[in-house]
UniProtKB/TrEMBL annotation:
Biased composition (Low complexity): 105-120
Protein name per the record: Domain of uncharacterized function (DUF3127)
Region (Disordered): 105-130
SUPFAM superfamilies: Nucleic acid-binding proteins
Pfam families found in the cross-reference section: DUF3127
InterPro entries, A to Z: DUF3127, NA-bd_OB-fold
The species this protein was found in: Capnocytophaga ochracea
Amino acid sequence: MEIQGRIKQIFAPESVGQNGFQKRDLVITTEEQYPNDIIIQFTQSKCALLDTLQVGQRVKVHFNLQGREWTSPQGEVKYFNTVVGWKIELIQTTNVAQQTQQYQQAPQGYGQAPQGYTPQRKYRNKGNHNTSKGKFLTIWGNEKGNSNNRNSMLVFKFLSNH
């Protein structure tokens, strides 16, 4: 299983019991309409996965869900769940507007376009659209020089509102 969110807190490694069992907790906040703070436990050698992370970073955490039964000294049976992380990935955020601007400018070292050159595609930004399935950017374009005068559509889905 996996979950995505923004790091809220990284706890220091902790030694539990007399056998030197190591654990380290991470709290991430999900980026949903109703955000949740989820605590994820990393154990033994996996504790080191958190060493280079910082509060505020967006991550994808791969985990296993574990459950156990516990009987109190009074004989009452209780059940507990633990979210145990085993892999973590940074989610790189990119700004579509910045990327578009970068691609519109010629790389350094390239001269002007040849005289008489006409770009083969012209795109029109149709704007951002909020739907029940997320926020989208739609761009329409047509391909010149094609006898069908074919239209193309590019759709970008924003994974986060941030």
